[in-house]
Amino acid sequence: MRDFFSRLLGRSRRVVALVPSLTFIVTYYNQGSMLSRLIDGWESWPGDLKRRVRFLIVDDGAAVQAIDHARPRTIDLAIYRVLEDKYCNIGGARNLGTTVAETEWILHTDMDHVTPAEAAVGMLDLVEKNERRIYKFIRRDRRTGKTKIHPGTMLLTRSMYWEVGGCDEDFVGNYGQTDIHFFYRADRIVQTEFREDIMLEFDEEGEAPTIDRSKLEPNAKLLEEKKANGNWSKDFVRFEWQRVL
């Protein structure tokens, strides 16, 4: 295993200094045990790999705070907390994470997506290429073995994110359409590439609790209105927040 990562990271070591060039942005909401497992997984990566990635948790006003489950030892970890509990504030949390990220390349991903070390190496290879693309990846369900592409996990630059228009926070307060409304606009200005060679893992324990996934009509109607009128909001980060780690 050590030879495997040495070979994959060797080119990166020669080309750039071992400083963070990619930020993982993860939105957290009351998935305490899953956050602990994610951090343990990141901690298990080879040292050179860990030094290339910064980890950023956005605690979206959770009652079970992220800081209570985050005890980093060898990773570069920051936690930002939204100071109110806004229902389905996925877009707002992504906007906050993108705002405070310190690297140009970012990975937006969910709590139920586990990134193996070899997948992170593949992402860093894409970062080094620095092409104008948004990348999506396949995830494999740990229980069933089934695979699918989830649009919520995406690798892109902060510049591309804001060029698309970020996440429209008019959709906050109801479930659904967050990924769809982002890529409806993104597909018109930047190429999206699906990478079947980089595999993530899905862990159902990381799914956000208390979300009613059956009530899709309000945001579906809002999306059709915005597609017709083009009245996309740029009123970003509509809440108080603070850095807690």
Tell me what the structure shows.
A nine-stranded mixed β-sheet has the order 5-8-6-7-4-1-2-3-9. A hairpin with a 5-residue loop joins strand 6 and strand 7 (147-157). It has a single domain (11-230), classed as Spore Coat Polysaccharide Biosynthesis Protein SpsA, Chain A (Alpha-Beta Complex), CATH 3.90.550. The protein has helices at 2-15, 32-43, 47-50, 90-100, 117-129, 158-164, 178-186, 217-229, and strands spanning 22-28, 53-59, 76-82, 105-110, 113-114, 133-141, 147-157, 191-202, 241-243. 38% of the residues are buried. It has eight helices and nine strands.
> Unreliable stretches, pLDDT < 50, 5 or more residues?
11-16
What is the number of independent domains?
1
Report the top-level CATH class: Alpha Beta
Q: CATH homologous superfamily, by name? A: Spore Coat Polysaccharide Biosynthesis Protein SpsA, Chain A
Range of helix content: 25-40%
Note the run of SSEs as H and E: HEHHEEHEEHEEHHEHE
Largest sheet geometry = 9 strands, mixed
Secondary structure topology:
Layout lengths: L1 H14 L6 E7 L3 H12 L3 H4 L2 E7 L16 E7 L7 H11 L4 E6 L2 E2 L2 H13 L3 E9 L5 E11 H7 L13 H9 L4 E12 L14 H13 L11 E3 L2
Parallel strand pairs: 1-2, 1-4, 2-3, 6-8
Antiparallel strand pairs: 3-9, 4-7, 5-8, 6-7
Keyphrases for this structure?
nine-stranded mixed beta sheet; Spore Coat Polysaccharide Biosynthesis Protein SpsA, Chain A; alpha/beta; 245 residues; single chain; 8 helices
